[in-house]
Amino acid sequence: MRRRDFVKTLSATGVALYASDLVGELLAQSPKARVLESRFKGMSDIALTEAKRLGCSYADVRFTRNLSDSIGVRDRIVGGGGGGFGGGGREESAGFGVRVIHSGVWGFASSPFVTDDEVKKITAQATEVAKASAVSKRFEVRLAPTDSYIDYWSVPVEINPDTVSLDDKIGFLMKLNETALKQPDVMRVQSQIAFDFEWKYLATSEGSVIEQEIWRTFPSFSVTARKGNQIKQRTFVVPPKTGGYEIALEGQMLENVERIAAEAAEHCTAPPVGVGLKDLIMTPSHAMLTIHEIVAHATELDRIVGYEANYAGTSFVKISDLGKMKYGSKMFNVTADRTIEGGMCTVGYDDDGVKSQEWPLIREGILVGLQTNRETAHYIGEKESRGCTFATSWRNYPFLRMPNVHVDAGPPGSPTPEEIIADTKDGVLIDGRGSYSIDQQRFNGQFGGDAFWEVKNGKKVRMVSDVTYNAITTDFWANLDAVSGKESWQMFGTTGDAKGQPVQINHPSHGSPWLRIKRMMVGTAYS
Amino acid sequence: MSYSRDQVKQITDKVLNMCKADAVEVRFSGGERSATRFANSSITANLIEHDQEVSITVYYGQRSAAATTHQFDDASLKRTIERVQELARRKPENPELMMPVKPPQNYVEVDAVLPATANFGPAERAAMVKASTDICEKKGVLGAGYIPKLHWTDAIANSEGLFGYFRYAEASFILTCRTPDQTGSGWAGTTGVKDVRNIDAKMLTEIAADKGLRSRKPRAIEPGNYTVILEPRPAARFLSLMLGSLNARAAEEGRSFMSGKERGTTRIGEKVFGDNFTLRSEIGNPVLRQTPIGQDGLAAKSITWVEKGVVKNLFYDRYWAMRQKKEPTGTQPGMSLVMEGGTSTIDEMIKSTKRGLLVSFFWYIRGVDNQTLLNTGMTRDGLFLIENGEIVAPVQNFRWNESPAVGFNNITMLGRPVPMHTGEAYDNPGTAMVPPMKIEDFTMTSISPAV
Fold first, then answer.
1. Does residue B92 share a domain with residue B238?
2. Which of A266, A288, A309 marks a domain boundary?
3. Does A416 map to a domain?
4. Left (φ > 0), alpha (ψ -120 to 50) or beta: where does A196 sit?
5. Phi and psi (nearest 5°) for A146?
6. H-state helical runs in A392-456
7. Among A266, A289, A305, which residue terminates a domain?
8. Using a CB-CB distance cutoff of 8 angstroms, which residues of chain B are in contact with residue A137?
9. Which among B50, B144, B446 has the least Cβ separation from residue A309?
């Protein structure tokens, strides 16, 4: 299967996707990238006019069309996938949500019926909800100012996943299955490619009209091996990104399947690491989740000020720590970024209509920034939002979600991964994501991984098993003593970041170089 | 927005008539999900979500595909059907595919819609918040809570003539009270209540606020093995950790804690848990009032999973049952779940404890080892040290590493079961009848000063 064969099919982009229901038909009737001529402009005006008539001090309406489509092949049997976006198979939905501020309080209502009458009705309902909420108001919503924009923005896509035939997707995954199942110890293989499409049209009472289209693609496979009574699974993840089917083709899945199957089998007989202090060498695919849990979540300002106290939790970080807290060693630099190419949270504008940006969270180990949106920026005295508002779909209310959060690569002259290994006397190399659990303030985390190797006297000696480590956030990052350069920096991510009530899902990317954390306690979970 | 049986049947009949395939299955779900959320004693989100969806599965021999749409006009349905028919024809045969369930299925009748709950609106939720936050203010704590309401309909229909319909309305009240100095936090809640009049927001606020105040400035104690008294919420979360192991296929394929010693066998008939651990699904339980529709539309029937520690049944899905020449179980392990309790009160459990911990909440539980059911998690929102039959001090939270396979062998006292959600979040059905429980030798592995 060659990439240029797919590129030829690009002329059909969007047609199949848009035409699947009446909302799609409205979209198809709207000229691409000319937002003021869209069929959704008129309906937006109805919502905004009605909100104004009802006395709302702010209103926005967001139409979205969401598609998650995954195809999976398990043991040569074609199924719905599910490893990635959505629950497996093809799920389509479209509708709109209206958000208003009345009496200083938010109100939100949403509906799948995209008609003029329904837009008016739902706007009135959102207003009623806000008015009802005012009875228990203790403070008023304050929005940081933003410029207004009229714009169209989309993710660059080389191969629209909807234009790739099902036969080709299945054929690709079937090859993976055949290769993995040839290995004698392999008892199960599960492979999938998951796609996520998001179209959204936002109009605000402050004059913004923004249309955006985003594709995300996430291919992966897992191999389960058995030796004696031991069963182990090994997973290969292609870095999930915004973009199209090209991400699967470039992901080197076939090239890695034999290695992954062999490692699954080897893991079955790998000896336990035991309990003790070891240097941890973390690959980017493993560091991703640790960054997500104990850096990215801890620096969400809504958590810090208590908005998530009943569910996701608060944070050990306090507002007064900004500019002062020693979060890690001097080598530790962390950047939030909604503009990086391929980042799953990369957008033109957030769901408040704020232009996306890049900004520092940690510099030389010191906490210097936080994640904000229009509603929370004032808590740290910032005049503008960092653009972190997101809602999973039309059905959900928008609120603060993390952007892409990266650990920066080391400067020129930083060690290569091989040099980090060569420089390690007694360590464990950890690849991929495993078990993870963190307290509600993101201070005590326990992490496993997908595969582990013992490193002795500068050499990767053998696979080991039963590895977990306990990370006390600031101690952990204070022990960071090696960071590889940009050549080995990779951006993995997670498609299941849950937060909010009702729970909503976010898909952030987390880039990282190879990292080494000195002298961490490993293996206690199994002791 | 609610959907009557006739309205739903019209929709499913329409789809069935429009499809051209060997067999068709249509699943409907729709209704209203509303919620009020508050933090720092003020409402931060109040919302009403309307939604409806049909998921259409078509079958051509052993080929099948499914697609969903949220728009029910003829044109949208037609396009969705055309797409799913095309997809199914292009898919390879699936040897594990099962044709739709045949009628009749005699569903247990469950009345799960009480008008007071169905009509529980944003103004009533806001009034409940005010009643709660007024108490918080008086007691000097900050309330953060969540009041979800679900008025929902699920239905299944197929070309064999099957039609199953279930509508329900339920609500919850969940509250965390934190002290302004951020050193104390307490939790209280009730979930999945079918009669909203049974939510006593004031009483729950009193409990959460008092816990928050009593948990201020916790001291650190050594990790190790402790006697723990799990209140119903952490007990429900701990119980949920063994439900996945009740899958017969994973057990017979050797991938599960319930796998027998010989390949292809299970632990049915084996005493795996303590004498006082009994778990069953009681379809039609008068408190839970949960769906009687089981896997693929099979009628769910009451079933005992574990009796006095002995594994009695595992869940056989339709394909695996056919392959193993068994009856499909129909009832999935999470349905109308009831864990048998005892007569002890939490006070009696405390009085009988020489040294132990009273646990209000478990958080962020994740699996560590699937074969042994080893899991890790944190305590949260109120952890108290008990010495010589009395609570003597709040203590810092612990990370624990423990397996229900061990814990449910070490239960020494049980209380009266109450409805409590077994999941991490509270949005979907998942409430079970769970008793508070006292467990010996629970493994706390490290401390966290997080409050």
1. no
2. A266
3. yes
4. beta
5. -140, 155
6. 417-422
7. A266
8. 42-43
9. B144
Q: Report ipTM (2 d.p.).
A: 0.94
- Residue A21 is nearest to which of B76, B123, B427, comparing CB atoms? B76
Find chain B residues with C-beta within 8 A of A468's C-beta: 368, 376
Tell me: do B189 and B241 sit in the same domain. Answer: no
Q: Which of A106, A138, A167 sits opposite B41 (nearest CB)?
A: A138
**A446 plus A401 within the same structural domain:** yes
- The whole-number pLDDT of residue A73 equals 93
A512 assigned to some structural domain: yes
**Closest CB to B397 among A111, A229, A439:** A439
The distance of A458 to chain B (nearest Cα, Å) reads: 29
d(CA B304, CA B333): 10
A164 plus A256 within the same structural domain: yes
Determine which of A23, A133, A320 to mutate to test the interface with B (most B C-beta atoms within 10 Å): A133
Task: Check B44 against A93: CB less than 8 A apart.
Answer: no
Distances (CA, A) of A285 to A222, A292, A469, B347: 15, 12, 16, 48
Interface probe, candidates A311, A401, A520, chain B, greatest B C-beta count within 10 A: A311
The answer to whether the CB of B5 falls within 8 A of the CB of B165 is yes
The burial class, CB within 10 Å (0-12 / 13-18 / 19+), for B181 is exposed
Asked whether residue A185 falls in the same domain as residue A46, the answer is yes
Q: Which of B214, B248, B267 is the last residue of a domain?
A: B214
Among B29, B41, B44, B361, which would you mutate to test the A interface (most chain A Cβ atoms within 10 Å of its Cβ)?
B44
Partners of residue A231 in chain B, C-beta under 8 Å: 254-255, 371
The alpha-carbon gap from B70 to the nearest alpha carbon of chain A, in Å, equals: 6
Q: Is A104 on the interface with B (CB under 8 A)?
A: no
Cα separation, A93 vs A86, in Å, equals 11
The CATH number covering residue A120 comes to 3.30.2290.10
Contact A311 B46 (CB under 8 A): no
Instruction: Count how many Cα atoms sit within 13 Å of the Cα of residue A139 in the half-sphere of its side chain.
Output: 13
- Give the residue carrying structure tokens 């006070």: B347
And the tokens for A287?
A: 């560091």
Number of independent structural domains in chain B: 2
Contact B369 A526 (CB under 8 A): yes
Q: Are residues B274 and B154 in the same domain?
A: no
Q: Which of A310, A440, A441 sits opposite B146 (nearest CB)?
A: A310
In A, which residues are within 8 Å of B362 by CB distance? none
B350 and B266 fall within a common domain: yes
B74 and B169 share a domain?
yes
Structure-token match 């911990």, residue found: B357
Residues from chain B that touch A111, judged by Cβ atoms under 8 A, are 50
A260 and A330 housed in the same domain: no
Phi-psi region of A509 (alpha: psi -120 to 50; beta: other; left: phi over 0): beta
Tell me if B90 and A130 make a contact (CB, 8 A cut-off).
no
Question: Domain containing B107: what range?
Answer: 5-214
Whether chain B has a CB inside 8 Å of the CB on A379: the answer is no
Q: Do both B46 and B135 map to the same domain?
A: yes
A341 burial level (CB within 10 Å; 0-12, 13-18, 19+): exposed
Q: What is the pLDDT along chain B (451 residues), one digit of tens a residue?
A: 789 999 999 999 999 999 999 999 999 999 999 999 999 999 999 999 999 999 999 999 999 999 889 989 898 899 899 989 988 998 889 999 999 999 999 999 999 999 999 999 999 999 999 999 999 999 999 999 999 999 999 999 999 999 999 999 999 999 999 999 999 999 999 999 999 999 999 999 999 999 999 999 999 999 999 999 999 999 999 999 999 999 999 999 999 999 999 989 999 999 999 999 999 999 999 999 999 999 999 999 999 999 999 999 999 999 999 999 999 999 999 999 999 999 999 999 999 999 999 999 999 999 999 999 999 999 999 999 999 999 999 999 999 999 999 999 999 999 999 999 999 999 889 999 999 999 999 999 999 999 9
- From the CA of A413, how many Å to the nearest CA of chain B? 38
